[in-house]
Amino acid sequence: xxxxxxxxxxxxxxxxxxxxxxxxxxxxxxxxxxxxxxxxxxxxxxxxxxxxxxxxxxxxxxxxxxxxxxxxxxxxxxxxxxxxxxxxxxxxxxxxxxxxxxxxxxxxxxxxxxxxxxxxxxxxxxxxxxxxxxxxxxxxxxxxxxxxxxxxxxxxxxxxxxxxxxxxxxxxxxxxxxxxxxxxxxxxxxxxxxxxxxxxxxxxxxxxxxxxxxxxxxxxxxxxxxxxxxxxxxxxxxxxxxxxxxxxxxxxxxxxxxxxxxxxxxxxxxxxxxxxxxxxxxxxxxxxxxxxxxxxxxxxxxxxxxxxxxxxxxxxxxxxxxxxxxxxxxxxxxxxxxxxxxxxxxxxxxxxxxxxxxxxxxx
Length: 363
What we know:
Mean pLDDT: 85
Radius of gyration: 21 Å
Low-confidence stretches: none
Structural class: alpha+beta
């Protein structure tokens, strides 16, 4: 799977870029909600609402056919949509603005299905599942580590040069929804971003009521793990089931059939004892030869996907405070620490010791 793989449901993307559905026609409200102060708010509002949909999508080589909901676009086309919006509005921090304008209903049936789950843990699992199908370039997950709970967002496919847009939009949106669900006393206490602070980094502080840190091992919203069993105020199991059923009836998906993602998720389950190519292929219902061919058609290989998973686990290990390179090398199946160090440098451009020093400095 690469930036040319058509795996993103067009119907899902349209829910994000049709801001007319969620914005009020009031410039004062827009500035207050977006936490912006602009010289000509009415013109900004007009620009946001006035982008011609047909021309907007055509410029990204996306053909809109009336009444056709079943199309798919690729990551490159999605990034082209963002590029147009950012440049037309002259707003490099547009992801922050859009994320803050969104509510749970802005995410369509996926949002409704998530917030009507029984508990916060169920909600997080639902969000992770919907992301896998509706926007495969990103991977979302929830993890518990002792007293700490976290909602993690990672790239499956590079979204450069607009990685920050997609991360900003989702982090701000989910942060706000999280705060609405748990109440003021249980809000997240830390937001971490995996990239360096952008030129508009100071604007981030307007959107979060907790510390914001850049250059971290991963992007995550951090709170209390004890909240996992918190009952949601909108909990309604029947509504959650109905909303999810409606979601996937109206927006067809294909991510679950993408071999690189299926392989990656299989490898994650085998952490500490990764299967051979032949065994992995067998579990995925094909021969090793067929898997090699299909992965090559998607521009990847078994080794490339294994390296992605190993790099992910390496960053998570160091993020949790682990500092034994020898231990990590053994956990990831390397013959020795020098073999791991060589691979880690290939993945990140730095030695494990240098990476640890930088993490220590940022902490």
